[in-house]
Structures are given as C-alpha cells and as structure tokens.
Amino acid sequence: MIVWLNGAHGVGKTTTGALLQELLANARVLDAEKVGETLMDITPGLPWTGNFQDWPPWRPLVVETARHVLDHTGGALVMPMTVLVEEYWREVSSGLAHHGIPVRHFVLHADLDTLRGRIEGDTALGPSSFRPRHLEPYADAARAWLHREAEVVDTTLLTPAEVAARIAEVVRCWEPL
C-alpha cells in the first residue's frame, strides 16, 4: 500500500514521512521528487515550466517506480509529495489503482501564516523562494479539489511526531478493499 502525504511545500511532509516510516511495519519512504530530479538530469532541453510534474513522463514513472519497489519489497511506501494539479493526481492515483495498489491519501494542512513561519524558520533548508510562491496555489487546490480527495490532518498545533502518530493509527486500522 501507499501512504501519500500531500500538502503545501513546508508543511512537514518529509519530516512526518520519516517518522511515519518508523511507526509502520515494513514501511519505506519513496520520495517522488527523486523521479523528477532524475528527469531533470537526463532530459535537458525539455521546456522548463518551473515544475517537473508538468513533464508527461513524471507521472507514469512515479507509478511504475512505486509498483516495482512494492513488487520487490512488499509492505508500505510512504510518499511525501506535493501534487496540486488535480489532473496529475488523477493520473498518478488511477495508475496505482490500475496495478491494484491501494493508496491512503493524506493532506497535511496548516494555515498560511503558520506555513510562512515554518518556511522562514526552516534551518535545514534555509531561505526558499520556491516554497512561498506555492502557498497560494496550495490554497487554491485545497479549496477546489484537494481537501475533498484526501484525509486532511491539520498540523497547525501539532508536532511532526503527533501528526505521524495520528496517521499511523488510521493506516493501521485501514483495510483496503
């Protein structure tokens, strides 16, 4: 199975994913951003839009990478990855469903002021111009479709460990069809 952690850049998906991996039996983290980084390395000359998710190969490669990793390892994949374009989410989630891979989709949410504070105070990644630029697109996606398509976990007043524990409890009780 896949536990997909979606949400705004800077909300804590990567941190939560690492903690969640420790709480779920036989779980591994698969960062779909690495698929995008690979495409950036091997496909110079593709028109850059500011987001590798816009490249058509990214979505099926994420599906196939997850499928092959799960075929090899079993267990669960924790995938911390922001996807704000509904069409892209549909392509990835339907591709995984086609292979019979159940997905539990969570959106880690915090209000915009909290997100700005986390981004500005991030000592690991330092200052970022990318993450603040995507706060409004996240808010737009949340209103339009994203919060309807996932289980929303409000992280505003929670530590990453508390968020991971809540998600782990839901996942442990879940029996996919």
Reading the helices and strands in chain order gives: EHEHHEHEHHHEH
CATH homologous superfamily descriptor: P-loop containing nucleotide triphosphate hydrolases
CATH topology: Rossmann fold
Tell me roughly what share of residues is in helical segments: 40-55%
What is the beta-strand fraction? 5-15%
Please state the overall shape, judged from the principal axes of the Cα atoms: globular
Extract low-pLDDT stretches: none
Count of all domains: 1
Radius of gyration over C-alpha positions, nearest whole angstrom: 16 Å
How many E strands?
Answer: 5
Query: What is the rounded distance between the termini?
Result: 11 Å
Name of the CATH architecture: 3-Layer(aba) Sandwich
Number of DSSP helical runs: 8
Query: Average pLDDT across residues?
Result: 92
Reconstruct the topology from this structure.
Elements: E1 2-7, H1 13-23, E2 27-29, H2 33-42, H3 58-73, E3 76-80, H4 86-98, E4 103-109, H5 112-120, H6 130-133, H7 135-144, E5 151-154, H8 160-173
Helix pairs in contact: 1-8, 3-4
Pfam family, one: AAA_33
GO molecular function: ATP binding
InterPro entries: P-loop_NTPase
Describe this structure in words.
- With 177 residues, the chain is of the alpha/beta class.
- It contains 8 helices and 5 strands.
- The protein has helices at 13-23, 33-42, 58-73, 86-98, 112-120, 130-133, 135-144, 160-173; strands spanning 2-7, 27-29, 76-80, 103-109, 151-154.
- It has a 5-stranded parallel sheet, sandwiched between helices.
- InterPro entries: P-loop_NTPase.
- GO terms for molecular function: ATP binding.
